[in-house]
Amino acid sequence: MLAVLETMPGLSRLVQEELKNRNISHSIVYREDHCLYIDVTPDTAPLLRKLQTVNYVEVQLFEVDYTRDVKTLRQELRKKFREIRDFIREGSLVTFRFYEISRRLQRVILREAERVLKCKLVKARGDYVLSARFLFRRIRIFLDIGTFQPLYRRWYTRYKSRASLHPVLAAALCLLAGPGDFVIDPFAGSYTIPIEYCRMWNPRKFTCIDISYEFLSKGKANLGAAGEHIQERVDVLCGDFFRISVRDRYDRIVTDPPRGLRLELTEDFYSRMFSKFREICTDDVVIAMPVFKRTYNAFLRTCEKHGFKLVDSIETVQGGYRTLLVKLKLVH
Length: 332
What we know:
This protein is α/β, with parallel strands linked by helices. The chain has nine helices and 15 strands. The longest helix has 15 residues, at about 105-115.
């Protein structure tokens, strides 16, 4: 069974890594910048819902030969749609997405789907989301297995702080950082990173700090929705990270700091941040964070000055801005 894992630009490598970490049996068919095409068994397909670094997961329902003979294509589509008619409820709302399909073929597919499935086609997200893709010289119809709620819309989200990090990017940072025992997010906001980290790994303790009491107090609704097994690992401190004192030493720092758009003295901010990191980290610390590309050079200069080295970086997009997800370690 062919499955399509759609993520954010540049993150398909991390999706592949998460599949490996979760021991999901698969074989890679094709990889793009923002998509991973894999072959899985029907028994394995439901496990794909657990992936944190993807926006959508689609599994193939059927495929038909591409032909310029419209009559033959209609007959093939009619036959295949009849085979899945019991699966899609009659009278339900169905949304279609098209990739590399001509307008002419789109009209043919929509007409046959509406006629055979007896559904109502809608532009907004319906009860079912199907997609038609032209892949390997065949027209393939897929079903989004996160139909009722896209995977990137986390069930625990009750409150979003201003400029909160996309949960898929948060999960990507957690994957970059790897498992740790004592973890800290000094700019925690509404707890997106702490929740994603505790879902992916099982730290002994995750410390959250933020200067905004509003973000931390309202964001506790997210912690509560995420579950008691996550809530009991999280320790919350309200205050200025640069002034607050912490007792623990941390082997993982995963955070989304202010990324420079509203800061006039970018290098000064990074200098203060890395100085504080040196005070609270262990020798084997791993740091993962996003950095806007426009401030990347200043970031690198400052991190090297304070004894950290760049281990890995992935370029993606956050809020319309080119962003790099970076992984740092201490230089010994």
